Give the backbone structure.
Amino acid sequence: MNSAQAKVIRTMSGLSFHELTIKDTAINGTEPKDATDCAFAAAASKVNLGFWECSPGVFKTARDGVNEVILVLEGKGTLVSDAGDRLDHEAGDMVLIPNGWRGAREIHEQFKKQYILISE
C-alpha cells in the first residue's frame, strides 16, 4: 500500500516570510525588498508550470513519476486518496500532491489552479 499523502503546504494566512531585505541585484538606485518562503524543494530533472481550470465533478487521478505543487486560485476541491484520506483545499491554499499519490479529485465549485510538475 502506498503511503504518499497529499497535504496543504501553505495557506495565505500561514506564510512565514522573514524580514524583508534589500535585493543585492537592485538597479537604477532603487531599493526593492523581498523575502522568500520556500515551501518545497526537490532535485528536479524536469519542471512543467501552467494553469488549469475545471468545472464541478469527480474524477480519478494519479501522480506517477511526478510531484505536483498547486496554488488554488479560485474554487474549492477535495483530494480523496485510495486509502480514504480526504484533503479539502480552496482559493489561497498551496497543496503538494506527491509522486505516488493515487485517488480521486472532487471539484465542488469552478476551480482554477496554477501548477508546477516536478519530474523525478
